[in-house]
Amino acid sequence: MLYRAEGIVIRSMDYGEGNKIITLCTKESGKVGVLVRGAKKVKSRHAALTQPFTYGEYVFFRNTGLGTLNAGEIIESHHELREDLIKAAYASYACELLDRVLQDEETGAFWFHQLKACLTSLQEDKDPQIIINLYEMKILQAAGYGPELEVCISCNQPRNDEDMLVSPRLGGVLCRYCKHLDPPAMAVSVRTLKLLRLFARLDLRRLGNVDVKAETKDELKKVMRALMDMQLGLRLKSQNFLDQMDKYNI
What angle do CA 228, 122, 237 make, to 5 degrees? Predict the structure, then answer.
């Protein structure tokens, strides 16, 4: 059967001497694997369609399993992301995270739009850490692990923001009266808590330019990393690279 789908390349790997297999996050069909014959050849007309982060329209034959590319057209190459080390690192993390969370053929419209918005925001030079933290929140929510940030996850009572801690293990905020349920719960500033709540409500497609103080960004990064590690438990190569960038202040 012949399919036509808008998709973003979230993974590209060599296959045999001259071919590549790409994994697409598509708007219509979720995550799809497509074989691109001859993509590694110098004069291949499809080589550009296999580059990571490429957004295009793909036409492929597929019965079950892997499809085979017939034709395609690039809508947005995102070559700026591949040419900048920092942008490429964050974009790779966004793609790898989605690849690991999204199951094959799982309905992909929401995932597709959030990834597309993430890559566009990175290309527009918006703060990459804020973009990725917001993207992580959307991933958690779409995967069914969105944190409870309005009321205490234990007693279900609204408390003053000053009395709230974040419990990555329990998946939400915990008031000081219930802290004994998770002693390692993280104390956060009121500013960081408000940002987390904003992230929970905000669609990435509506993100404008955000100016966040360095100390708030550091706190936000620690909270989101803890939530991601505890709720999803993924070990990603791209995350290790981002950690190395932080270590050496790149």
Answer: 45
The domain locations on the chain are 2-77, 80-147+180-248
Distance CA 193, CA 219 (A): 10
How does pLDDT run across 104-133, given as a tens digit for each residue?
A: 766 668 999 999 999 999 999 999 999 999
Predicted TM-score of the model (pTM): 0.95
Helix (H) or strand (E) holding 157: none
Between the alpha carbon of residue 18 and those of residues 39, 51, 67, 214, the distances in Å are 6, 15, 17, 47
Q: How confident is the model at residue 237 (pLDDT cuts 50, 70, 90)?
A: very high
Q: Which CATH number fits domain 2-77: 2.40.50.140, 3.30.365.10, 1.10.8.420, 2.140.10.10?
A: 2.40.50.140
CATH class of 80-147+180-248: mainly alpha
CB 73 within 8 A of CB 5: no
